[in-house]
Amino acid sequence: MNGGRDDALLRVEHLQVYFPVRRGLMRRVTGHVHAVEDVSFSVRPREVFGLVGESGCGKTTAGAAVLRLIEPTGGRIFFKGQELSALSEEAMRGKRRDMQLIFQNPYSSLNPRMNVWKLLSEPLRVHFRLSDAELRARVLEMLARIGMTEDQLERYPHQFSGGQKQRISIARALITRPSFVVADEPVSALDVSIQAQILNLMMELQQEMELSMVFISHDLNVVRHISASVGVMYLGSIMELGDTEAVYRHPVHPYTQALLSAVPAHDPTRKSSHIVLEGDVPNPASPPSGCPFRTRCPRCTALCAEQKPALTETEPGHFAACHHIA
Predict the structure, then answer these.
(1) DSSP state of 46
(2) Main-chain phi, psi angles of 224, to 5 degrees
(3) In angstroms, rounded to a whole number, what is the distance separating the alpha carbons of residues 17 and 72?
(4) What is the architecture of the domain spanning 2-320?
(5) β-strands 212-217, 48-52 pairing
(6) Are 213 and 44 in contact (CB under 8 A)?
(7) Which sign does the torsion angle of CA 286, 32, 43, 86 carry?
(8) Is the pTM higher than 0.85?
(9) Band of residue 271 on the pLDDT scale cut at 50, 70, 90
(10) Residue 202 gets which letter from DSSP?
(11) Domain boundaries of the chain, sorted by first residue
(12) Residue 289 near residue 305, CB atoms below 8 Å
């Protein structure tokens, strides 16, 4: 299975994240929101792994849990062979410089009271002991890599465009020279005209710095462009998993097929058969029994309500969680 590759830099096994639902004056726990349910995948050194799905499917929560910014309810996370889920907070702090996060919205993730110099030098001060000269050299080197100049160091976030803000966010995440990054929808808050620039910058930096990355997005075209392998999430679970081109060219899960059928064709003369899913996404606080997708699936049978399908290998390196793979 993808989640168990021997050469993986990051390996996630049966990850679960539940949030308590509290009600009444005493704020008693009456249930749980199943944000992430039994998610497994792995990321090789220098590989980009795409995590896709509709809004609210648990992608961002899974990414934050991998970094232990949100504590997992269950499952195991291994990074460079070490189990992160077993580390104390203090021990985990030492891993932070090697595992970073690029936030979705640069308008809210950058401190408006800090100029570019403080935003970029702070991670270095926290994680390294550098002289003033070394500190400045590292900041200027990173600034040049993102296409910005020294005279912008004293400016504040409100003095930059959205694209420039995201460049600064990327620089802040990469300035500690991590080997692994979670990029949480890093272009979704930007104008379409600058999304391609930021994506190209990220791909250049990923290759130059030999980064491994989990790239989270709801944009299927973007994920195909940047990722070597992909996982498709629905209601907290992975429905399909495999090499990106294999999944995109021959999707076997009905949910993946429906998602890809909705992607606009590059050729306007080509007719597309859009698969319309009936019904709404179930409430994650009260997920359906068996397969999480069964309430909207055209292939649903009694078995789907009784038993949750496991990720099964349909062809080498390609997995799907469905009892009735066509």
Answers:
(1) T
(2) -65, -35
(3) 5
(4) 3-Layer(aba) Sandwich (3.40)
(5) parallel
(6) no
(7) negative
(8) yes
(9) low
(10) H
(11) 2-320
(12) yes
